[in-house]
Design brief:
The protein is an alpha+beta fold. Among the domains are: 197 residues, no CATH class; 30 residues, no CATH class. The protein has 7 helices and 15 strands. The strands form 4 sheets. It has a 6-stranded antiparallel β-barrel with strand order 1-3-6-9-8-7. The longest helix has 18 residues. The protein is elongated and about 135 Å long. About 2% of the residues have low confidence.
C-alpha cells in the first residue's frame, strides 16, 4: 500500500524567505504610488559642551550617540544636533481638520497630533538606522504659499517624532512587519530645534526659519501687555490699607488727642477737623501682607540706615538698611517696630527690598560636590559631577 504525505502548509517561516521579500516589495510600491514625500531632518544626538575648550563667545560642543540622554534628571535632550543633509522617504497619514475644543475654559487645539506610516526597510536603508524619537519630519506638500504676513517666502511645516511603533496593519500574511507607525507633533521655537530653525527660510534668503515660523515675538508682546495691565490693576501684593484712618486709643478706650483736657474738649464739642490726634502706634487693620512701610494716616516720616539723634514722641522713621524695610515709631523713650514693608511688586524682581525678591530669578551660588552651582542652574549638572566622583 502506497502512503502519500502532503507537506505541511504554513505561511510563517522561522526565517524571512522570498515570500517576505516579494510582499515587502508590493507594500513599498503602494507608498511609491500613493504616498507623499517626508523630508527627514536626522537627529544625530545631544550636544554636550566641552568645558575645557569652551569660551563664552564660542562654545565648543561634542555630539554623543543619539541613544544617549543629555539630562538624566529631567530625561531631556535640550541641546540637539541635526544632520545638515536632508533625507527623503515616502509615507502617508490621514488628513484631518484641526478644531478648537470649546467645551472647557480656554482654547484647546484638537487633532494636532499626526499618526504617520512609513515603510520599514526603505526608511532604514535611507537613514542608515530606524527612524526614532527626535527626528523631525518636514512635509513639502503642506507648504503655505499664501501666508498672511510680510514675508515673501512660503511657510513650511515641521513635525517631531515622539513615538515609533510597528503598525498593526503592516503585518503581512507571513507574520512579519513591514510598516512603522509614527506619532508626531508640530515643533515649537524651542532650544531643541535650534539647528533646524537657524536654517535659511529659502535659498538665498536672509531670513531664517525662526524669523518666519516663530510666534515668540508676538507672544512676548501679548505677555507684556498682560503684565502692564496687571501692574495697573494690582500694583502691589497683599492688601492696601492706606485709605483707612486709624485713631490711637488709650487704655480706657478713649481717643488720644494731643491735649490733656480731653474731657472739656469732648464736653464743649470742640473736636474739629483741626484737632491734632496722637499718632497711632500701629496699623489698625491687621492681615496678610498689609505692611507697606508707610505710617498710618499718611503721617510724615524720615528714612535712613540709622535712627536720628533727636526725635519727638510719635515720630516715624523707616529703616531702609533692613530687608524688608521696617517702620518704627518713637514713643518718647525708644523706637518701637510698627510694621515691615512686605508689600512688593508682583512682576519686577530687581530692586525689591523683601525676601520675595530672592526666590525669583535666584542667582545665589552654592558649592555642591566641590563645584559652584547657581541656584537657577539645572541641578542635574551637579548630580552628574557627583556621580563622576
Amino acid at each position: 500500500m502506497l502512503n502519500i504525505h502532503m507537506p505541511r502548509l504554513s505561511l510563517y517561516r522561522p526565517q524571512k524567505t522570498k515570500d517576505y521579500s516579494f510582499l515587502d516589495g508590493i507594500v513599498y510600491e503602494q507608498f511609491t504610488v500613493g504616498g507623499t514625500d517626508f523630508n527627514i531632518h536626522k537627529y544625530l544626538g545631544p550636544k554636550n559642551t566641552l568645558e575645557d575648550d569652551a569660551t563664552a563667545e564660542q562654545p565648543v560642543y561634542d555630539v554623543v550617540k543619539e541613544t544617549n540622554i543629555q539630562d538624566l534628571l529631567f530625561l531631556e535632550n535640550r541641546d540637539r544636533k541635526y544632520d545638515k543633509d536632508i533625507y527623503t522617504i515616502r509615507g502617508h497619514y490621514n488628513l484631518q481638520d484641526q478644531d478648537f475644543d470649546l467645551s472647557q475654559f480656554g482654547l484647546f487645539l484638537q487633532n494636532d497630533t499626526l499618526f504617520m506610516t512609513i515603510h520599514i526597510n526603505s526608511s532604514v536603508k535611507t537613514l542608515g538606522r530606524k527612524i526614532m524619537a527626535g527626528d523631525v519630519i518636514e512635509l513639502p506638500h503642506m507648504i503655505d504659499e499664501y501666508a498672511a504676513n510680510d514675508y515673501n517666502v512660503a511657510l513650511k511645516r515641521f513635525y517631531v517624532v515622539d513615538e515609533v511603533t510597528r503598525a498593526a496593519e503592516g503585518f503581512s500574511q507571513t507574520w512579519y512587519p513591514h510598516l512603522y507607525r509614527l506619532r508626531a507633533k508640530q515643533i515649537l521655537d524651542s532650544q531643541e530645534y535650534k539647528d533646524i530653525l537657524d536654517l535659511p527660510a529659502e535659498e538665498g534668503s536672509a531670513d531664517t526659519l525662526r524669523d518666519v515660523l516663530s510666534t515668540y515675538e508676538k507672544e512676548m508682546q501679548i505677555n507684556e501687555a498682560v503684565i502692564a495691565q496687571a501692574e495697573v490693576d494690582v500694583p502691589l501684593s497683599g492688601y492696601s490699607t492706606i485709605q483707612f484712618y486709624t485713631l490711637q486709643l488709650g487704655d480706657s478706650g478713649e481717643i488720644e488727642i494731643v491735649s490733656t483736657d480731653y474731657d472739656s474738649l469732648l464736653a464743649d464739642d470742640q473736636i474739629t477737623a483741626d484737632t491734632v490726634f496722637v499718632t497711632p502706634d500701629g496699623n489698625g487693620y491687621q492681615g496678610y501682607l498689609v505692611g507697606d512701610g508707610i505710617p498710618p494716616n499718611g503721617a510724615p516720616y524720615g528714612q535712613g540706615i540709622g535712627f536720628p539723634s533727636e526725635a519727638d514722641s510719635g515720630d516715624y522713621f523707616l529703616r531702609i538698611d533692613l530687608s524688608p524695610n521696617r517702620l518704627f515709631r518713637y514713643d518718647g523713650n525708644s523706637w518701637r517696630k510698627i510694621e515691615d514693608a512686605v508689600r512688593t511688586t508682583l512682576t519686577q524682581t530687581s530692586g525689591r527690598d523683601t525676601l520675595k525678591g530672592t526666590f525669583i530669578n535666584n542667582v545665589t551660588v552654592n558649592t555642591i560636590s566641590g563645584e559652584d552651582v547657581v541656584e537657577r542652574q539645572a541641578l542635574s549638572k551637579a548630580l552628574r559631577a557627583k556621580a563622576g566622583d
